[in-house]
Amino acid sequence: MSRSDDLFNRAVKVIPGGVNSPVRAYGSVGMTPRFVEGATGPYIFDADSKKYIDYICSWGPMILGHNNQDILKAVIRKAESGLSFGAATEIEVEMAEFICENIPSVEMIRMVNSGTEAVMSAIRAARGYTGKNKIIKFAGCYHGHSDALLVKAGSGVMTAGVPDSAGVPAGCTQDTLTAVYNDLESVKALFEEFSGEIAAVIVEPVAANMGVVLPAPGFLKGLRDICTQEGSVLIFDEVITGFRLAFGGAQEYFGVQADLVTYGKIIGAGMPVGAYGGKREIMEMVAPAGNVYQAGTLSGNPVAMAAGITQLKILKEHPEIYTHMEETGKALFGGMERLLKETGKPWTMNSIGSLGCLFFTSKKVENYEDAKASDTKAFAEYFQYMLEHGVHLAPSQFEAIFLSNAHTEETTQETLRIFEQFLRR
Ligand SMILES: *Cc1c(COP(=O)(O)O)cnc(C)c1O
After folding, report:
1. Residues 259, 276: one domain?
2. Do 358 and 235 fall into the same domain?
3. For the segment 72-105, what is each residue's pLDDT rounded down to a tens digit?
4. What is the pLDDT of residues 371-384, one digit of tens each?
5. DSSP SS3 for 136
6. pTM higher than 0.90 for the full model?
7. Domain range holding 368?
8. Ligand 1: which residues within 6 Å by Cβ?
9. Known catalytic residues?
10. Which of 197, 290, 310, 335 is in the most buried spot, having the most CB atoms within 10 Å?
11. Which of 19, 202, 239 to mutate to test the pocket of ligand 1 (most atoms within 8 A of CB)?
């Protein structure tokens, strides 16, 4: 029995399902999870000291690769002055100034501790600002685990086969309307039916929690126009895409500006950080400037800020990182697509920049219904094969492959070699 198996046996006795976040349990691929001992660059090492090329990258935060020394040093230096004070610190101002200077749509920003909190708070601000209650989300988009958003929520929720969570009273989701990703008509229909009642439209500008689904040309711009016309707040949930598609996230990549943006993952560089920001007049609704209450004992934690701002500054100062990841993405995802063709497999590859997903379906994947048509048994075989041969993919059909700046030509060639073996086995 491996050490990971031992650890998992201990874990299931004292942690629900043995993990602190569901998708880590490998449930949807019918395995028990590998426990991680450490990581460096593009590699992780499990509890049995086996090495893997890692394509989870902590679900995005480790965009510079694991164990980046500049970030580590910044964290240690900051920690030496104390871990938390529950009072304002200079580095919080630096972080807010840095983001407001570099992200055009963000005039003010509030730091929180997770993506879930960022989205929950952004929605509260949008409701406070508009005085309206209803929100529109898209089927298959994940926005964290707050009650109102656990409706057709993709990701771990989808994998677990619990489309709507137990423990969420109907009252909490009665104002959550669901539209179809890439279908502007479905959004217009909701605006017609609930005219004057919709506070916000929230979207993952690239959906990355139902696999990876790209916005169709004109989709994001269409949402922008509808929200402007209807006086609703457009929220881009850039918890994955922020600082990834480009430094300015999806807003920069697609040239569409949201009213509010939520961040998480990369912004904390591996520390628990989220943030929401945007138009001054909306953000000034937030307490203590305004009467939309939102607070956090550890929000803006100096050690977490030190990690995040160090990573963001490196990304800002080195635009070649984005070129490198784009090229790695083209080589890896393009290479996988070529091998699918060569071996006559009908599966669908979706990708953009450093995000990719192999869907085990022969049809195009443009929304949640398409994604759900994937053969998850076939996915599980692929996952197992890749893992056994040293490639650590996300253990679910409905998650993304994440690249970092530390992935190289070498990791790409090795991954493609194993993928080809899998296809020809
Ligand atoms: C991960 C994620 C969240 C939730 O962030 P947590 O830090 O896990 O709470 C919200 N939205 C999107 C798009 C995400 O990918």
Report:
1. yes
2. no
3. 999 999 999 999 999 999 999 999 999 999 999 9
4. 999 999 999 999 99
5. strand
6. yes
7. 3-67+319-424
8. 114-116, 119, 142-144, 204, 209, 237, 239-240, 264, 274
9. 142, 237, 265
10. 310
11. 239
